[in-house]
Amino acid sequence: MSDATATIEVTASHMPGSVAQDAVHPIIEVDGEPRQAKWGLNTLTVPPGQHTLKAYHKWLLFREAFASSTTVDVADGQTARLGWRTGAAVFQAGKWSVM
Fold this sequence. Notes:
Layout: E1 6-13, E2 27-30, E3 33-36, E4 40-46, E5 49-59, E6 62-74, E7 79-85, E8 95-98
């Protein structure tokens, strides 16, 4: 078993003025495994390699509001910095960006 690790930082945010979203917490899946997240900076320790991230949050009747995915490659000791932001409509995908 290897002790190699990498880090993915995801800054989760929502539209300004959307205070109702402050009441829910985003979920960030790493390779299909959900992790409870928060608005702001989330630090995820992962093994080096390619990872698929999916972010969303529960909202009223939507189990995966603003759901969207991205793929990132991280090398041993590297930190990948990403942003995920919700939009105006709950059924639209959130936007990923490289930070």
